[in-house]
Amino acid sequence: HRDLHSFPTRRSSDLVTRGLLLGDAAVELYVSVAATAVVSAIVALALSSLTRYREQLAPIAVLLILLSLVFCGGTFPLAARYGFNVVSWFIPARWGLAASASSVDLNRIDELATHDTLWTHSTGWWLFDLAMLGVFAVVCLAWLRWRLRRPARD
Questions:
Q1: Which residue has the higher pLDDT, 18 or 100?
Q2: Confidence of residue 3 (pLDDT cuts 50, 70, 90)
Q3: Cα-based angle 71, 77, 83 (whole degrees, multiple of 5)
Q4: How far is C-alpha 122 from the geometric centre of its chain's CA atoms?
Q5: Distance separating alpha carbons of residues 23 and 34, to the nearest angstrom
Q6: Using one digit for the tens of pLDDT, what is the confidence trace for 134-145?
Q7: Which residues sit opposite 9 in a β-bridge?
Q8: For residues 95 and 36, what is the distance between their CA atoms, to the nearest angstrom?
């Protein structure tokens, strides 16, 4: 029986300190987290544009947070579950966690981490994960622009 506080990780000397592209893994981690936060806010704004009343925002926010927690890839393995994996492609948290995991090489430092190709410690995968966040931002901003510019219906 394992204690909850003692999960197998590598020694601190095994932690990645050299970044993939920016030179420092901590800076890349901050970039990944910041990009995820900004894109998640844009997605939330796009979804809120679908509502007519403020009272409708709370259920959408709860749904968005729950979907992000379930489909980010950190709660349970998604790589081996095709249906869940496909749904996770439409959740920004999936790509944000993948960029963060790729930056710090989570597959190497955490023995319990499920092997996920998106978490591969390489510049290409890190940039791909961030590019997917960029796609979310562009699509949602285009949606917002369209929703805010269309003529009001009475």
A1: 100
A2: very low
A3: 60
A4: 17
A5: 17
A6: 999 999 999 999
A7: 110
A8: 8
- Beta partners for 24? 18
- List the alpha helices (DSSP H) in 72-115: 82-88, 92-104, 106-109
Query: Shortest CA distance to 116 belongs to which of 152, 69, 84?
Result: 84
Total Cβ atoms within 10 A of residue 2: 7
Which class for 54: exposed (0-12), middle (13-18), buried (19 or more C-beta within 10 A)? exposed
Q: What is the pLDDT of residues 21-71, one digit of tens each?
A: 777 778 888 999 999 999 999 998 998 888 888 888 888 889 888 988 888
Comparing CA positions, the residue from 113, 143, 149, 146 lying closest to residue 47 is 143
Count Cβ atoms below 10 Å from residue 52 Cβ, excluding itself. 6
Rg, the chain, Cα only: 18
Tokens of 142: 């285009």
pLDDT band at 129 (very low <50, low <70, confident <90, very high): very high
Contact status, residue 80 vs residue 17, Cβ threshold 8 Å: no
DSSP structure class, residue 35: H
> How far is Cα 122 from Cα 104, in angstroms, rounded to an integer?
10
Confidence of residue 4 (pLDDT cuts 50, 70, 90): very low
CB-count burial class (<10 Å; 0-12, 13-18, 19+) for 60? middle
